[in-house]
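Hi, here's the filled form for the chain we discussed.

Project: internal
Contact: R.S.
Residues: 198
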Amino acid sequence: KRKKGILKKAHELATLCDVPIGLVIGSPYDSTPEVWPSREAMEKVLSQWKTLSAMDKSKKMMNQESFLRQRINKAIESCKKLRKENKELEMKEVMFDCLKGKTSPSRVDPSNLRDLGGVIEQHLKDLNRRIDILKKNDEPSSSSVPAVATTTTSYVMPMVEMPSSSSSVIFYDNIRERIENNLNKETRKDLDLNQKQW
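And the returned structure, exactly as it came back:
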């Protein structure tokens, strides 16, 4: 049953990847090993293999230990990436809760202030970039519209306020002030410890 599965996989690889594949399958019940797909094809594969350099032969060669080590490293990197994304999502949720008034910056854990400050700064950059894009898109459209004299009463389009940007700035200032206060406290503690030691 296992031999049939291996032969099926070899056939799929040879077809899908368009690579020469040869198998030599030994058995404790048969002294003559089975060769797939045929002896002639296997000899051709071996002759091609022998012409390769040592570096090309071992470039993609892998045993079980190196394969598992590679999978573990990939899993570790994936976990780091997911942990970073989760942290950013968590800080975004805290930021919007503060803007909505559900919580205040003073309740934020001091260990999360730097991450929160980075998220707010990135959010402000995205907002400013979007405002610049909207202004650039609005300028050519307004300049291309010809002035037409009409008798109808003119009206002014209401300006849409963007409280998110100003609130984010104020909120970011509060976070930055808290970070500076914490740094000052840590500096004072270090100075007090040094004075006590002297």
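Let me know if anything looks off before we file it.
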